[in-house]
């Protein structure tokens, strides 16, 4: 197979290659624009048939915790995201080299791989590994969908493009996840800020209430003192002032002092309470 | 002669009000109480022209005193005389028909003059 690829193409071969390269560049451009795995599967179904013949073309990609399988037939393309390998994929992973099977029926593959005996089905497999990405490509060919070893050139080109694209989509998913985490953290912080703000507002309100209540309590003895002072003008004799006003003034001043002490004790306790 | 009823738990406050009233007109009869629960039983007997009522008192506060008056259908004119400058108290006082005014301590003699002249 390797020898076939390295052969210099003859005149007609070079024409065939040119047309196939054009088809490849079309495929590659369309693939580049894909934003989802389903779009990739659709692109494979539309464009691969111009690059080489196949009954089934299968991609099994894995990178970190992501696993993606795309099965393409000329009429259908399906996507799965399971952490599973088909039997021949296990063999390819172990062998770490391209392989092919002339009796795919013996591998117990899914139904889409089964062909009538006279089709003389052949299964081809390639395994690629770059960075942390693992990519296994398998292709089922037959008499009516003839695949030759030299078509492997395009398999390698397709594999490179697919690997980059699938890795890109996986990285987008990682990015989305991280963004989600960040936005969750942001949301939590907003919630904490909202809660703290309302707590502070409630404490402020409580403090204002305390100060109003205290002011009223203090006003009572103070208003007596003010009233008594204005009585001084009405006193007809110093005796009257000394006997009637002064003792009451003294009492009221003592009451004021007492009230203030109470208020201070109470406010201190409330403030300590609010801090807790 | 006009009869005035004072209800305030602080003797000193009643003393000040009495002095003020006597300064304006020594002829007025002033009845002063430091226990509103006793004062309420005397209202009908004394039948005062005006009651000066404190709000913040232990045992029975000014609001309870006003409610008792309402229940016993006493229509005597009441002036609230309190050290509270609270708007809430002022609003609440408006709910009672017989409350003619809301005065804040210390009482101003000119205001008292007007109140007594209006009796």
From TrEMBL, chain A:
Lineage: Bacteria, Pseudomonadati, Bacteroidota, Cytophagia, Cytophagales
Species in which this protein is naturally found: Pontibacter populi
Protein name as it appears in the record: Signal transduction histidine kinase dimerisation/phosphoacceptor domain-containing protein
UniProtKB/TrEMBL annotation, chain B:
Keyword list, A-Z: Phosphoprotein
Positions where 4-aspartylphosphate occurs in the chain: 54
Pfam families registered for this protein in UniProt: Response_reg
SUPFAM superfamilies: CheY-like
Chain ranges of the Response regulatory domain: 3-119
SMART domains in the cross-refs: REC (SM00448)
Coiled coil, from the record: none
Protein name: Response regulator
Organism of provenance: Pontibacter populi
């Amino acid at each position: 197979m390797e020898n076939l690829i390295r052969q210099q193409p003859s005149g007609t071969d070079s024409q065939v290659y040119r047309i196939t390269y054009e088809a490849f560049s079309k495929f590659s451009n369309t693939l580049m624009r894909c934003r989802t795995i389903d779009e990739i599967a659709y692109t494979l179904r539309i464009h691969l048939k111009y690059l080489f013949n196949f009954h089934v073309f299968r991609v099994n990609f894995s990178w970190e915790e992501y696993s993606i399988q795309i099965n393409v037939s000329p009429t259908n393309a399906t996507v799965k995201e399971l952490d599973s390998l088909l039997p021949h994929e296990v063999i390819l992973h172990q062998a770490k080299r391209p392989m092919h099977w002339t009796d795919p029926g013996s591998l117990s593959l899914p139904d889409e791989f089964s062909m009538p005996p006279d089709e003389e089905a052949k299964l081809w497999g390639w395994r690629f590994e770059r960075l942390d990405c693992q990519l296994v490509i398998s292709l089922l060919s037959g008499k009516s969908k003839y695949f030759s070893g030299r078509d492997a050139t395009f398999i390698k080109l397709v594999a490179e493009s697919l690997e980059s694209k699938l890795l890109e989509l996986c990285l987008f998913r990682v990015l989305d996840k991280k963004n989600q985490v960040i936005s969750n953290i942001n949301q939590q912080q907003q919630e904490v800020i909202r809660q703290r703000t309302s707590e502070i507002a409630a404490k402020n309100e409580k403090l204002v209430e305390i100060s109003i209540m205290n002011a009223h309590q203090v006003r009572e003895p103070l208003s007596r003192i003010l009233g008594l002072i204005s009585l001084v003008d009405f006193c007809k004799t110093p005796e009257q002032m000394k006997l009637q006003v002064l003792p009451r003034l003294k009492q009221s001043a003592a009451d004021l002092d007492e009230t203030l002490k109470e208020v201070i004790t109470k406010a201190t306790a409330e403030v300590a309470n609010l801090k807790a | 002669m006009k009869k005035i009823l004072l209800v305030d738990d602080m003797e000193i406050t009643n003393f000040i009000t009495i002095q003020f009233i006597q300064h304006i007109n020594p002829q007025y009869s002033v009845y002063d109480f430091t226990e509103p629960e006793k004062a309420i039983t005397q209202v009908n007997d004394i039948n005062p022209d005006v009651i000066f009522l404190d709000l913040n008192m232990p045992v029975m506060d000014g609001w309870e005193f006003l409610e008792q008056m309402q229940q016993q259908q006493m229509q005597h004119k009441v002036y609230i005389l309190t050290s509270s400058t609270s708007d809430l108290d002022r609003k609440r006082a408006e709910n009672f028909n017989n409350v003619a005014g809301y005065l804040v301590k210390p009482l101003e003699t000119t205001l008292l003059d007007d109140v007594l002249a209006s009796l």
